Amino acid sequence: MPFQRFVETGRVAYVSNGPYQGKLVSIVDIIDQNRVLIDGPAAKIPRQQMRLSDLHLTKFRLKYPFTASTRVVRKAWEAAKLDEQWQNTMWARKVDAKAKRLQLSDFDRFKLRKARSIRNHLRTNAYFRLKKGLKKEKSASASKDSKKPAKKATKK
Question: Which domain of life is it from (predicted)?
Fold first, then answer.
């Protein structure tokens, strides 16, 4: 099956555009092929319609009845501990890291660049030390093989 995430009742989505950008919502109903009815009780987003192009579907899905009320959606959200699950995903970590990078000052960016340079220098030195050690081992094993007398093939 090529697709893993479907637009369906209970699917949790990440808002990518608009006033609620960066928040999680749950799809309550499908209006048409371009719009859905969403509700975001944890992020205090009121029930409203939203374009599918403004949403990114996540792997999470809540179980509640078709067109459930906000109270039912909130209870399902809290029972699934969705906020904790979201914080454990790589997606959420990347969003947090991006927000941190945006808050850096010029001096912080400079310090980060110098720290990366030092790290890369140490990494490169360690790599070449290991590579040199392997070359020595190979040459030592090759010299042992050359010391053994080779058998000569004789013609009869």
Answer: Eukaryota
